[in-house]
Amino acid sequence: MLGKRLVVVSNRLPVAVVSDGQTKTLKPSSGGLVTALNPILESEGGLWIGWPGMGEDEEIRPLAEQYNRDHTYKIHPIPLTEAQVDRFYLGFSNQTIWPLFHDFLGTTHFDVGQWEEYDKVNRIYAEHVAEEVSPGDFIWVHDYQLMRVAYHLRKLGVEQPIAYFHHIPFPAPDLYRRLPWAQQIFNGMIQYDSIGFQTLRDRRNFVSLARERLRKTNFRIQRRHTTFTINNREVHVGNYPISIDFDEFDKGARSNAVKMEMEVIRQAYQVDHLVLGLDRLDYTKGIPQRFLAFERLLEKFPDLQGKISLIQVVVPSRTQVKTYSDLKEQLDQLTGRINGRFGRHGYVPIHYFFKHLNRSQLLALYRSCEIALITPLRDGMNLVAKEYAAASGDHKNVLVLSMFTGSADQLGKSAMLVNPYDLEGTANTLHRALHMDPRERRRRMRALRSQIRRNDVHRWVKWVMGALTGVDARDIASELEGKGEGSYEPDPELSPHVESTRRAREVPKKLL
Hints:
nine-stranded mixed sheet, 19 helices, 17 strands
């Protein structure tokens, strides 16, 4: 889009180091960011900087060099010690920022040593970025682990525009103030030239915080972003919902490999209805509440016993953290209790898997399960909801979605929204989904797919980069419409008086 090299900076690289006991290799990582950005970088090239999942530079360097010879874009690994990972990632990032920003104040841990390590590692990332970038590169930093990278880049003399995208929720000012290092984090974030959030709610929360802390600053409200000036530098704060490569999921779901996996699923699960739950292991995903709502469904509608099963796949994550290992134990116990209560010979109510899936298995589950039950207690976006709809090309499936996800802002009109804390309401919604008229199913799924196709990952990139270059999102939408990609759908405006500030730059013609 900018005609410049894209440099992505994130906590993890898009690949992970795996070992068979003798040799180490790189395999693709999972996660929303990799899903979203890989298609862009594979198409246009660029550089991705991040931690490879191990600490020894001499071990990862030859693997990275081989990867760079074989791929369109390059990777630059940042080795971290075990102690740094423990304090920066497992500690401050995931015991302080993650729970606090997801409204789980009761599980938030404040430790000054972990904070100091967090800032130190952000400086290490900044040093690697400063060594690798050229003046014409577009630097795009991602997520809550790296909120102070721009602060350290400015200290190192990097003056070019730097963008940041915040993938998780951003809390309201009252909750944010609980953080002992709130001012330092805020000071770091406003060193970015473009700050992107998933939803209008997150954008409002940050802008409210900025107004509170920058009282003499003028804020200009625009269609998809708010702009303010600090130290003669404009900062754009926008809401740009991340998405997926719709065509990749749509076409992939029709492949012969997926059809073979679907036949395996059909033979393995001899019930009338399959419901899918798919999550990374995390207490924000609402998996225990989902199990209890499914139990309530079987209690309240006994005619469904023996006819419906929940397939729950939990992807291992952060098992070194006690909160997560405790959650896994809770899920094991709930599965055993519910299956013991309602199961019988030939029938298992909940099929629970703690594992990774390959792509064909994932897409086959999306197509085979007539209902996706996606019920996080709080989620920045949730791309599983979008992937499920993109893979549902026959329009027979139903998306049941938590109202507390960022995806609900986009998909709420056609999905069936639930409050995951309301077990009775979720069970009733599941029952309605099962008995929904086929014509209504097709109407809802067509609308979901149209929305996701129109606002795909490529448009997400254009929104973020358009804000940084001063191109109004409506201009970008016009460019997209000229390519037959659908109409622009603005979010509700923050103010009845919208000021359009277009700088004297041409609308970018390339994607990158």
